[in-house]
Amino acid sequence: MDIQLDEAAIRSLTRHEPVSKAVVDRAEQGADYARSIAPVRTGRYRDSVEVVEDDDGADIVADVDYADDLEYGTRHMEGQHIFGRTLDSLRSSGQP
Predict the structure, then answer these.
(1) Are 95 and 75 in contact (CB under 8 A)?
(2) CA-to-CA dists, residue 23 to 10, 17, 26, 41, 86, angstroms
């Protein structure tokens, strides 16, 4: 069985107002969670977590140059996995 996804049709769904609003609302929930578990030394990382909307939906981002280091770690520190833990939380909440 060969299944082919209609990418254009899937993308068009996110442009419908109720779907778009639900996607952004869910991303905002994730951003709130990410901010709540973010390590705070100066607050710059936590305060940089935001939702960015685009044509395909919404992304949760942290707009600081050291965000990858906090997420994945460095040779000097363990990763904090803020976005990984956020994704786990969103998945386990039972909401779409």
Answers:
(1) no
(2) 13, 10, 5, 31, 15
